[in-house]
Amino acid sequence: MNQERNNLVGKSTEATSIEFSYLMPGWRAPGNVHALTTTRNGGYSQSGTASLNLGMNTSDSVELVKRNRDYLRKALALDSEPVWLKQVHGADLISLPSQLNLPVADGAITDQSRQICAILTADCLPLFICDRFGKQVSLLHVGWRGLAAGIVEKGVGRFEALPADLIAWAGPGISQLNFEIGAEVREQLGGSDDYYRASEREGYWYADLYSLVGDRFNAVGVNEYGWDTKCTFKDGKSFYSYRRDHDCGRMASLIWKS
Predict the structure, then answer these.
(1) What element of type H or E holds 95?
(2) I need a labelling partner for 169 at 20 to 30 A (CA). Which of 123, 132, 193, 208 fits?
(3) Strand, helix or coil at 163?
C-alpha cells in the first residue's frame, strides 16, 4: 500500500448514553459532515437479535425493528428518517433524495443537507466517504462480493471532487483473524499477497478486507483513508456478527451533512 497514505487506524471515538452507544469515525472530515455506526446495545429486540437490531431482513419482528428505528432517530435527534436500502451485496449506488420507497442498492450518495444515508452491517464494512469541502457524502456496504464487483471504485466515481480531495473511513467489521475465505473468493478479490494469511485448512486464507479496500482507493487516487480496529466477530457484546451467530441483528451506519 502507498506509504504516503494518511492512515488513521483505530482512532474511532465512542459516544455513550445510559442505554445507547455508537462509534464515530476517527477521520478529518469537515465540520458539517456527521457520521456514526451503532453498536448492538440500547434497543428492544430479544434473543439473537438483542437489542438494537435495525435490520428488517432478520428473524426479528417488524414491529420491534420499527421501534428500534424510532428510538435511534429520537436518540440522535435526527431531522429526517434515514434512507434504508434493500442491500444485495452488489455494487450499485443510489443518489439521494430518491422517489423509490426501498431502493435496491448497496450504497448511497447525496449533496443535500440533512439527507441521511444509511447502511446495515453485521461483519461487512461500513465505508464512509466525503470530500474535504463538505459538499457530498456517501456510505457504502462493502463485503467481499461488493468489493470484487467494484463498489469502492464506483463510489469514488460518483463524487464531483477529485479522488485526491476525498476522505474515507471504514467502520467496524470483521478482522483478518476471523475472515476465512476459499480460493475462489481470493481469486475474485485479487490484491497483494500481503493481504492474505494462510489458514490452518488447506486451500483457505484469512483476508484483510480493510487493506484490500485501501488498495483499491490507492489505485484510483484516494490518499486519505483510515479504519476501525474493532472486530465485529470477536466483540459479541458490542456487535452483531453473521459469521459468528448467523441468527443476528444488524448495526446501522449513518452519514449526513448539515
Answers:
(1) strand 94-96
(2) 193
(3) helix
Determine the Cα–Cα distance for residues 149 and 237; give it in Å rounded to an integer: 32
Check residue 224 and give its pLDDT. 98
- What is the grid cell recorded at 100? 423509490
175 phi and psi angles, rounded to 5 deg: -85, 165
SS (HEC) of 105-130: CCEEEECCCCCCEEEEECCCEEEEEE
Work out the pLDDT band at 75, boundaries 50, 70, 90.
very high
Query: CB pairs under 8 A, 24+ apart, for 17-25?
Result: 17/42, 17/75, 20/52, 20/71, 20/75, 21/238, 23/171, 23/172, 23/228, 23/230, 25/128, 25/169, 25/171, 25/226, 25/228
Tell me the pTM: 0.94
CA distances from 164 to 156, 214, 223, 229 (A): 10, 14, 6, 24
Domain coordinates in residue numbering, the chain: 13-176+225-257
Residue 183 CB neighbours (<10 A): 11
pLDDT in tens, 23-61: 999 999 999 999 999 999 999 999 999 999 999 999 999
CATH number of 13-176+225-257: 3.60.140.10
N residues, the chain: 258
pLDDT at 88 over 80: yes
Angstrom distance (rounded) from CA 223 to CA 20? 33
* C-alpha grid cell, residue 242: 453473521
CA 166 to CA 243: how far, in whole Å? Answer: 31
Alpha helices (H) along 134-253 = 144-148, 151-157, 183-189, 209-220, 242-245
